[in-house]
Write a structure and sequence with these properties.
The complex is a heterodimer. Chain A contains six helices and no strands. The radius of gyration of chain A is 30 Å and the shape is elongated. In chain A, helix 2 (34-44) packs across helix 3. The longest helix of chain A is centred in the C-terminal third of the chain and has 24 residues, at 108-131. Chain A has helices spanning 2-17, 34-44, 63-77, 82-93, 108-131, 143-154. Chain B folds into four domains: 1-158, no CATH class; 166-397, no CATH class; 417-514; 518-619. Chain B is 63% helix and 11% strand. Chain B has helices spanning 2-30, 33-36, 39-62, 69-74, 81-86, 92-113, 119-143, 167-196, 201-232, 243-268, 272-294, 301-305, 308-332, 347-377, 387-407, 418-443, 449-471, 479-488, 491-516, 621-638, 641-644, 659-662, and strands spanning 518-524, 529-532, 535-546, 550-560, 566-570, 573-577, 582-586, 588-591, 595-604, 610-618. In chain B, strands 2, 3, 4, 5, 6 and 7 form a six-stranded antiparallel β-sheet that branches. A four-stranded antiparallel β-sheet of chain B has the order 1-10-9-8, covered by helices on one side. Chains A and B meet through helix 1, helix 5 and helix 6 of A and helix 14, helix 15, strand 1, strand 7 and strand 9 of B.
Chain lengths: 160, 663
C-alpha cells in the first residue's frame, strides 16, 4: 500500500507543485474581448484544477487546468452566462470542480456549522452571564492564606 | 557509528521521559518534595539526549552519509550546505525529530526558568510535558525512525525538491514548530491546573510568557511561509486557503483567542474554564496541523488509511492526548469557579466577543479544511472548499472583530461606559467612514470589499493610536507629563498597541494589493517592452547562469516610470535542476516598501521569446510587514517586567501540597 501513496504524491508533485512556479494563464488562451476575458478570469478562480492540491485553474499550470480554462472561454464566447458556465462544468466534472461547494444536504454542516456555532455560543454566553448576575460567593481564605495575608500586610509594600 | 549513538540517545530520552512522567506525578500526589524535584534534572537530561540524537542526524546530513536512509532519500552531495541542513526537516522523519527537539527545549526551559513555580505544580507541568514527549518519541522510534541504515549505501542521494531549496522555506519549519510546540506549554500548564483543580491569576501569569513566545514564533512562521509562497511559487498570491496553510492558521487563531482570554484570567480571575479549554484546544489544533501536513492525509484520505502503521499510531496519539485532556476537563472544569463579575459592556465583555468570533473563525477554517476529507472518508461526494467559501464565511466574522478591536481597549474593566467610548471614538469613526466612502468612489463598485477593508484598517489603526494617546494623556496634560507617561507605560501595553497597529497595516496591504494589482501576461523577446500600471518594462537581454546543482538562463528587465526614468533592473531566471530534471522559474521583485514590481519568466515559445508575467502589487509589502509588526508586538509584550521578574508568586496553599485537589 505504501508504494501507492508514494506514487500518488509523486504524481501530484509533478502535476502541480513543480510546474506551478511557471504559472497559469497563457497568453494564447486569452480572449480578445476584455469584458469576456475578465469574466473568464473570475470564473477560473472558482473552479478547481482536479489533479492539484486545492489550486484553482487560474493558478494552476497543469495541462488539465489549461484545458478547463479553454473550455470556460469557449462557453463564454458561445454566449453562456457565468452561472451557465459553472453549471456546465459541474455537470461534466461533478461538485469536486467547484471551489465554492454547492449548498445541499451533504454540505449543510460546512455552510451552516460556523453560524450555528456562533449563535449557540453567543446564546450560551448570554445565558451564563444572566445566571451569574447574582454576586458569587468568594471562597473564604484558608488558615494558611490568612496567615500569608497578615505577613503581607505587615511587610513593606511591593514596588511592582 | 554516530548515527547509532543518536538512535541510542533517543531511546534513552524515551526512558528519561517515562521517569519524568511517573516519579514527579507520584511525588506531587503524595506531597514528597524529593520525588517532585526529579522533574527538573529529568527535563534537562531529556533535552540533552534529544539534542545529541538531533546532532547525530544533522551530522549525517552535513557529511552526506548516504548509508542513512532518510539522508539518501532527501539529500544530495551537490546541494548547498544550507539545504543539506534544512533537508533534515524537509521530510517526515526528520521533521518529527525537530518537533521533539523543540518540545524538550521548552521542557528544559521550564525546568531552568520556572523556579518561581510551586514545586508540586512544576512537577505536574513537567510530567504532563513528558507525556507528550513519550508519545512522540515512541512514534518516531516505532514508525518514523530517521536513523535507519540502508545497505548497500547508494553512491549519491535522491536530492530535495528544488521548490524547497530556498532560504524562506529552510527557516519556515523551525519557526512554525517553535509555535506549534510552544502551545504544548500552555497545554501542560492547563492539564496540571486541572489536576490540581485550581486556576487563578498567578496561573495565567505563568502561562502567558510561554503562550506569547509560541504565538510570536507561529506568527513569524506563517509570515515566512506566506512570503515564500509569494515569491517562490511565482503565482503572485500570498494566501491560498490551502489545507497546509490552514493547518498553521487554526492554532494561530485559537492561540490568539487564548492570549486574550488569559488576560481576563490574570486581571479579573474569571473565564477560567474557557481559558483552560482554549489552551487544550490550541495544542490539539497544533497536533492536528502537524499531522495534516506530515501524514499525507491531504493527498488522499484513502492512501493515508491504507498505511495502517503510521495512520493508526497518529490517530491513537491524537485520541489519547486530545480525548484524555478533554475527559479530564469535563471532570474538573466545574470546580473552577469565577470570582470576578463583569457587565456585558466592559473590557471583559469585549474580550469575550473577541473569543467568540475567533473561536467561530477557527471552527470555520476547521470545517473548510477537514469536512471535505471527512466526506471523502465516509465515501460521500467529493467536494472542494476554496477561497470563495472562506470569503463567504471567514471574512464576515472578521468585520465585527475588527470593529470591536478599536473600542475594546478603551472600555474599562468590570463595567464599561459604552456612551463615553462612543463619544471618544466619534472623530475617528467619522474619519474612517470618510475613508470608506472615499474609497468606494475610487473603486466605483468594482471591488466591493476594498472600501470595507480600507475603512476598517483606518479604524483599527486610529482607534489603537487614540487608545495610546489616552493612556499618555496626550494634549490633556503638559508635554513633559505625556513623555513621562509614555516612558512609564508597561511593555504589555506597548505590545498590544504595536500588535493591533500591525493588524491594521496588514489589512491595508491585503486589501489594496488585492483590489488594485495590475498584471501583464505576454510573450516577449529581448528588445521588446510592455506597459503595466503605467510603468514601462523593457526586456533587455538573456544570459546563461548556473549554481552548484542547477543551470539555466537569466533575463534582464529595465523598468522605467511613465516619464521614462528608469528606476530598477530586475533579473528573473529559469533554473533547471539536473538531478530532478525539473525547471523552476525564479521570480525577481523590486520593492519600495509601498509596492512590489514582480516579474517571472516562463516557458520559451516555439515561435521565439518567452511567456513573461509581470505584476504590480501596490501595498503588498505591508501584508508581511504588518504580520511581522504583530509578532514584534508579541515580543515587546513578552519583555514586560512582570513576566521577567519573579512577580508571579502564588499564595502558598498549593505550594504546600494541594489541599484543593484533595478537597
Amino acid at each position: 500500500m505504501r508504494p501507492l501513496r508514494v506514487l500518488l504524491s509523486v504524481v501530484l508533485a509533478f502535476a502541480c507543485l513543480t510546474i506551478a512556479p511557471a504559472w497559469a494563464v497563457n497568453p494564447d488562451e486569452r480572449l480578445s474581448d476584455p469584458g469576456l476575458e475578465q469574466r473568464a478570469r473570475m470564473l477560473s478562480k472558482e473552479l478547481r484544477c482536479m489533479v492539484c492540491q486545492n489550486e484553482s485553474i487560474d493558478d494552476s499550470n497543469a495541462d488539465l487546468a489549461h484545458d478547463l480554462r479553454v473550455i470556460v472561454r469557449q462557453r463564454l464566447t458561445a454566449g453562456d452566462t457565468d452561472q451557465q458556465v459553472l453549471a456546465y462544468m459541474r455537470a461534466r466534472y461533478g461538485d469536486f470542480v467547484l471551489l465554492n461547494p454547492p449548498v445541499d444536504s451533504t454540505t449543510w454542516v460546512l455552510w451552516f456549522g460556523p453560524f450555528a456555532v456562533l449563535i449557540f455560543s453567543g446564546a450560551t454566553i448570554g445565558l451564563v452571564t444572566r445566571f451569574r448576575r447574582a454576586p458569587a460567593t468568594v471562597a473564604p481564605l484558608s488558615e494558611e492564606e490568612a496567615l500569608q495575608l497578615q505577613t503581607l500586610l505587615k511587610s513593606e509594600p511591593d514596588p511592582s | 557509528m554516530i548515527i547509532e549513538a543518536g538512535h541510542f540517545a533517543l531511546v534513552l530520552a524515551l526512558m528519561v521521559a517515562i521517569i519524568q512522567v511517573v516519579i514527579p506525578l507520584w511525588g506531587a500526589s503524595t506531597g514528597r518534595r524529593p520525588l517532585m524535584e526529579v522533574a527538573q534534572p529529568a527535563a534537562v537530561l531529556q533535552f540533552v539526549l534529544v539534542a545529541i540524537s538531533f546532532a547525530a542526524l544533522l551530522n549525517a546530513y552535513i557529511t552526506s552519509d548516504f548509508s542513512v536512509l532518510t539522508v539518501a532519500e532527501n539529500s544530495h552531495s551537490t546541494k548547498p550546505m544550507m539545504y543539506k541542513i534544512s533537508g533534515l526537516w524537509g521530510n517526515h522523519e526528520g521533521s518529527m525529530l525537530l518537533w521533539v527537539l523543540i518540545l524538550t527545549i521548552y521542557g528544559a526551559a521550564v525546568a531552568v526558568f520556572g523556579s518561581g513555580l510551586p514545586p508540586a505544580f512544576r512537577a505536574r507541568v513537567l510530567a504532563v510535558h513528558a507525556m507528550i514527549a513519550v508519545g512522540f518519541i515512541l512514534f518516531i522510534l516505532l514508525t518514523s525512525n530517521p536513523f535507519l541504515r540502508i545497505s548497500p549505501a547508494p553512491p549519491d542521494g535522491q536530492g530535495m525538491n528544488p521548490v524547497l531549496q530556498d532560504p524562506g522555506l529552510a527557516f519556515h519549519p523551525p519557526f512554525l514548530y517553535l509555535g506549534y510546540v510552544g502551545f504544548s506549554m500552555a497545554f501542560s500548564f492547563a492539564v496540571a491546573a486541572l489536576l490540581e483543580g485550581r486556576v487563578d491569576p498567578a496561573w495565567a501569569r505563568w502561562v502567558r510568557p510561554w503562550t506569547l513566545l509560541a504565538w510570536c514564533s507561529l506568527t513569524a512562521g506563517i509570515c515566512l511561509g506566506s512570503f515564500w509562497a509569494y515569491y517562490e511559487l511565482g503565482w503572485g498570491g500570498w494566501w491560498a486557503w490551502d489545507p497546509v496553510e490552514n493547518a498553521s492558521f487554526m492554532p494561530w487563531l485559537s492561540g490568539t483567542a487564548l492570549l486574550h482570554s488569559a488576560i481576563v484570567v490574570e486581571k479579573r480571575d474569571t473565564l477560567k474554564s474557557w481559558t483552560i479549554f482554549l489552551a487544550l484546544l490550541t495544542f490539539a489544533l497544533s497536533l492536528v496541523g502537524t499531522f495534516l501536513v506530515r501524514s499525507g492525509v491531504l493527498t488522499s484520505v484513502h492512501a493515508f488509511a491504507s498505511d495502517p502503521e503510521r495512520g493508526a499510531f497518529i490517530l491513537l496519539l491524537l485520541g489519547i492526548m486530545i480525548g484524555g485532556s478533554l475527559v479530564l476537563y469535563a471532570i474538573r472544569a466545574p470546580i473552577l469557579q469565577p470570582t470576578g463579575q463583569f457587565a456585558p459592556v466592559s473590557r471583559e465583555g469585549a474580550l469575550v466577543l473577541n473569543n467568540l468570533l475567533l473561536a467561530t473563525a477557527t471552527v470555520t477554517v476547521f470545517l473548510g479544511t477537514l469536512y471535505p476529507l471527512f466526506l471523502d472518508a465516509i465515501n460521500g461526494p467529493k467536494v472542494s472548499v476554496g477561497a470563495p467559501y472562506y470569503m463567504a464565511t471567514f471574512v464576515p466574522l472578521m468585520v465585527p472583530l475588527l470593529v470591536a478591536m478599536a473600542a475594546g481597549p478603551l472600555l474599562t474593566w468590570k463595567r464599561g461606559d459604552l456612551l463615553g467610548v462612543t463619544a471618544r471614538l466619534r472623530v475617528i469613526f467619522g474619519v474612517s467612514l470618510a475613508v470608506m466612502v472615499g474609497t468606494s468612489f475610487v473603486t466605483a463598485g468594482k471591488f466591493a470589499l476594498a472600501p470595507i477593508g480600507i475603512g476598517l484598517a483606518a479604524w483599527v489603526f486610529l482607534g489603537t493610536m487614540q487608545d495610546l494617546a489616552g493612556r499618555v494623556h496626550l494634549f490633556k496634560g503638559s508635554f513633559s507629563d505625556t513623555l513621562r507617561r509614555l516612558g512609564a507605560l508597561p511593555r504589555a501595553s506597548w505590545g498590544m498597541t504595536i500588535a493591533h497597529a500591525g493588524v491594521a497595516v496588514a489589512l491595508a496591504g491585503m486589501t489594496v494589493s488585492t483590489g488594485w494589482s495590475a498584471e501583464g501576461i505576454q510573450v516577449m523577446k529581448p528588445g521588446e517592452q510592455v506597459v503595466v500600471a503605467g510603468d514601462i518594462w523593457h526586456f533587455d537581454s538573456t544570459a546563461p547562469v548556473s549554481g552548484s546543482n542547477w543551470s539555466g538562463m537569466q533575463a534582464q528587465f529595465s523598468v522605467s516610470d511613465g516619464g521614462g526614468h528608469p528606476f530598477t533592473v530586475l533579473t528573473p531566471s529559469r533554473r533547471t535542476y539536473s538531478l530532478q530534471q525539473m525547471t523552476l522559474a525564479k521570480v525577481a521583485i523590486h520593492t519600495n516598501n509601498l509596492a512590489n514590481w514582480y516579474v517571472v519568466v516562463g516557458d520559451p515559445q516555439p515561435q521565439g521569446g518567452w511567456i513573461v508575467r509581470i505584476y504590480w502589487h501596490p501595498l503588498a509589502p505591508w501584508i508581511w510587514y504588518g504580520v511581522l509588526i504583530m509578532a514584534a508586538g508579541g515580543a515587546v509584550s513578552l519583555s514586560d517586567r512582570r513576566l521577567r521578574i519573579g512577580a508571579p508568586v502564588r499564595r502558598p496553599a498549593v505550594a504546600a501540597g494541594n489541599t484543593h485537589a484533595a478537597a
